[in-house]
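Shipment paperwork, digital attachment
Item: protein structure file
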Amino acid sequence: MVKFGCETVAEAMKFGKEAAELISKSLFISPIKLEFEKVYFPYILLSKKKYAGCYYTKPDKYDKVDTKGLENVRRDNCMFIREILEKCLKFILTEHKQDGLKRAIEYIKGCVSDLYQNKVDISKLVITKSLNKKSADDEEEEPA
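Attachment content:
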């Protein structure tokens, strides 16, 4: 990922395509070619391999809110948490110039209130996991 410091998505796309061409010509041997893929705007980088942003392949409108490595795409969290995070990210990323953050906070407060009042479907609070590896105790036992 490259941060160009542009003001618009269209400008970032232009720079991305130019950079891909320049790098392909100067650093790679044909037929290897670096291709421009997408622009994220706005973009939230929490840590390595954990980020979210509005995903653009065309400058006019974002394609989707894309997330990688966060709780809403990981299977080791309950559906309740995944739904909350997904909706909050959508508020923050798509309404960042309005009151997206305030809407996200109010939404979370409502969800917590629902949880305290037992209004949340219990199936949304379940975490399912499977055990794949044998435990150390299982390996020590030998068949009789």
